[in-house]
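User: Run a structure prediction on this.
Assistant: Running it now.
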Amino acid sequence: VELVEAGGGLVQPGGSLRLSCAASGSTFFTMGWFRQAPGNARRFVAGINGFGDRSWYESRVGDRFNISRDNARNTAYLQMNGLKVEDTAIYYCAASRKRVATVDEQYEYWGQGTQVTVSS
């Protein structure tokens, strides 16, 4: 499975971005988004199951971010609203064979990452 992220960039605080993750291979993996800020460990952000009917979030983003997927396009998305400076990080897409996955070790495939910078 190859994963390719897109949609990162520079945005002002309070703004929005939508990240996408195009996947080759199987379309029914659980998909997740992680992020890594400078000097910090990579952390889970959001996940969605293979059919797209169940999603879960890290507590600090649950009311601002939304994960979705379009299996016909083999693509997962992360809609980020109300962005804050502390959301600045490299965002990674990942795929897992598990039905629910919330930590690095549960994901077998990773994208290369896309930079999100929130700054005025």
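The chain has no helices and eleven strands.
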